[in-house]
Amino acid sequence: MQLRKLPLHMLAAIFMALMTSLWSVPLHAESTEAEQQAEKIRSNRSRYYFGEGNGLTIEEADQSALQVLAQSIRAVVASDVKVTTVNDDSHVEMASRISSFSSLNNTEQIILSYSDETGYRVMRYIARADLQEAIDQQRKKITDWVENAHKLESKADIAGALRYYYWAYALASVHPDNISMELDGAKRMLKSWLDIKLRAIMANINVSLDGITEQPGNANPYLVNLRLTYGGSNVGSLDFSYLTGLKKVDGIHAKNGEATLEFPSLPSGNITLKVDYAGVEQGKLFDDELASYFAVNRPMVIKESTLSVPVKGAAPAEFRIGEPEVTTARIEETRQLLEEAPMSIAPRRERIEVSTMFNPDTYVELMNRVADAIASGDYASVKPLFTDEGYDLFDHMMRSGDIKLASTEREYTIETVGKTGLAIGKRIPVIIKYKGRGRKMHTCREGIVLRFDGSRRISSVAYALTERAEDDIFRKSRWGMEARYAMQTFMEDYQTAFALKRLDYIEKIFAKGAIIISGSVDRTSGKKAARLSDSGGMITATGQPNIRYKRRNKEEYLNFLRTDFNNKKFIQLSFEDTDISKASGVYNDVYWIGLKQNYSSDIYSDVGFLTLMIDMDIEQPQIVVRTWTPEKLDLDEMKSRYTQQ
Question: Poorest-confidence range of 320-334, 344-358, 568-582?
Fold first, then answer.
């Protein structure tokens, strides 16, 4: 009863002391249990590798423990090791190199203790048998990445190819084995070959001038448009930075061989481009082993990644890109690079001819007025040219990022869509700046297409597909032109909806009972997955390590996208390598599409394959089945499963 007379601060102190004494029992018990488990690991060195570390945070202590663990591991390949005995303990000492802790993706963690003075103490351990499994899995990952890079290179997706080649090089450089593969008709030792391959790709990127646009009154009034090619094909994608003479500008993304650079004044000597080949930030998010690697390793310096483009002329009318200075030694070096790692570019598909308008002047004038509105920022001035829905979409697009007209050269094509009376205007070139994390920016080139209705009003706008994606739709095969344009329009609208984060449109294009299967990298398991299934819940695919799939209904998928859109500053999709198959019988207006999707955002990037079943027999085509997988699915098998063909 006397406690009531004590001062409030003393009562609080007594209460806290009582609570501390109550909490101390389970904490002490838990700590003792963890210590007992750790002691079993320490006393069983023949079965386990382990390391312990301290840190003010669990993450810091964990990294310290991982590094100690890595130092305790010596080689696991008999040909590379010698065995010595120290203090009656058997240790394996590496003859040439030690395994990096970046290869340890299936270690276990024990939190041993915590104190205010020393922080956390953590143990990391791995069974010796599990270590070999982890090393084998990493070897498979490296070779898979090389194969993926080779496919991307064949489609001139240089940004993706460089990333996967370099990520494979990074892990190969810390792998305990000398990994080899059959490449270009010969057995190659990957670490040395990847070094050569990366240099060969960048040494063979060609840069030319594609025009200059002057925008008086802007801080950077000169827009220098570049054309980038590789092996005679437009570069599908390339990420790089450049120097303006005053500062370095990061986050430039070339698309369809086009890139636009902004300058305060025209350079008079050289334009210096620095190719981003390592994809450090994407790699950290994409794979835990890469995150560990990049935490302690800087990207390898590759001199060929710096492209010095000679220029002359200080005024737009005189501005030219000169011939690069090429010495005999450089020619020989490039020849040797290509001999060891030749270019791999697939030829573009032969296209059928499309119908262009005989007298397109009226439509070209309308496109010029829209381009002028983009250049001035006075979007409302062209509102009468649009339908209500078309203008709402145009206004949304213009406010989705910092958009500028990329060129004042007006070369437009007006295509007619069969006998429908509709027309498509291609394409207004723009550059778009998206804000990334912190002060980082992402700048990309896009082409805006305008769709005209029978009254010559603009009913919708979209970002154009890549050249190769269009090639796939308009390749020589027997199906109707109107169906091709419907497919092109659908795919353009799909990628544009993600860029503009149009949840309303995505809700409209998915059928009520749509089967939606999404994939993501599973960082918790190195185990190989089972066969792709649509039975519901978490599902996985044959032979694909670290990929988990989740089947969602339409409402669940929309909720997922709502959160995803809110978390990302920008999203950019591009498609290529498209296969299209038309169903028959009662499914006459159902199309199956399998296509490679390049997904990029400020916090995550990946390359995978979409498989879509689309019902075109309605005014608004709808997706009935949508799957994402890291490898292409067989369309005939999907048709058999879902349409009983």
Answer: 320-334
Strand partners, 361: none
Cα of first residue to Cα of last residue in the chain, in angstroms, is 85
Q: Is the pLDDT of residue 78 over 90?
A: no
CA atoms within 13 A on the CB side of 65: 28
Output the pLDDT for position 531: 37
User: CA-CA distance, 193 to 197, in Å (whole number)?
Assistant: 6
Q: What is the mean pLDDT of residues 99-117?
A: 74
Q: By three-state DSSP, how is residue 479 classified?
A: coil
Q: Is 444 left (phi over 0), alpha (psi -120 to 50) or beta?
A: beta
Beta pairing class for 180-183 and 186-189? antiparallel
Ramachandran region, residue 256 (left: φ > 0; alpha: ψ -120 to 50; beta: rest): left
Express each pLDDT in 391-406 by its tens digit: 999 999 999 999 999 9
| DSSP of 194-245 | HHHHHHHHHHTEEEEEEEEEE-TTSSS-EEEEEEEEETTEE-SEEEEEEE-S
Helix (H), strand (E) at residue 511: strand 510-521
DSSP state letters, 54-85 = EESSHHHHHHHHHHHHHHH----SGGGEEEEE
Integer angstrom CA distances of residue 75 from 128, 230, 560: 11, 41, 44
Provide the whole-model pTM.
0.78
Q: Are 180 and 193 in contact (CB under 8 A)?
A: no
DSSP class of 401? S
